[in-house]
Specification:
By secondary structure, the protein is α+β, with helices and mostly antiparallel strands. The chain has one domain: STM4215-like. Helices cover 30% and strands 30% of the residues. The longest helix has 25 residues. The radius of gyration is 19 Å and the shape is elongated. 23% of the residues are buried.
């Protein structure tokens, strides 16, 4: 089976690699809420600040000649251990999270102009970016900012004959 241009796993690996390269980010969490709960409850805890890739959505669009797979990707930058009564620390965490998150978006924007990452090349939709402050209610003392943006990739809707028992009846090998 041919690889798709973009997949959940590719995005998860990309965000994980970015988190590992940023000097301020101390930890990374993928979209699993169980992983988040597990790290928050562990002896070592979740290192702060951390990047959490928390949402991956897709929508197909296009015409008879070309199909696009428009994805909305969401991540957050969060700080842990902020006292519920320390409003200045909360504001600072949210402000710092915004600065770090915009740094990530800046990197994504620059990388989208280079061919090195094929699925990202010319596909970052800067005008789709929006972000907002967050306080995760299930995790006391967690403050930050969440960011959302769209990618628009072509998506060949071609059937792989070897994946269907009747593939030879309506599919032609490529």
């Amino acid at each position: 089976m041919a690889d798709r241009i973009l997949s959940y796993k590719k995005v998860d690996e990309y965000f994980s690699a970015l988190a590992g390269k940023h000097v301020d980010i101390k930890d990374y969490i993928g979209t699993s809420s169980t992983e988040l709960d597990s790290k928050l409850g562990s002896v070592d805890g979740l290192q702060s600040p951390f990047l959490c890739f928390f949402n991956y959505q897709s929508k197909l669009s296009g015409n008879q000649q070309r199909t696009f797979n428009e994805r909305t990707l969401s991540f957050s930058i969060c700080f842990t251990g902020i006292d519920a009564e320390d409003f200045e620390a909360q504001k600072k965490a949210i402000d710092d999270a915004e600065i770090i998150g915009l740094e990530f978006l800046s990197r994504i924007n620059i990388e989208s102009k280079k061919e090195a990452i094929g699925w990202l090349y010319n596909n970052f939709q800067k005008d789709s970016v929006f972000y907002t402050e967050i306080e995760l209610e299930k995790a006391d003392g967690l403050f930050g900012m969440e960011f959302h943006f769209d990618l628009k990739n072509t998506e060949a809707l071609v059937v792989s004959p070897d994946k269907w028992t009747d593939g030879d009846t309506f599919c032609t090998p490529q």
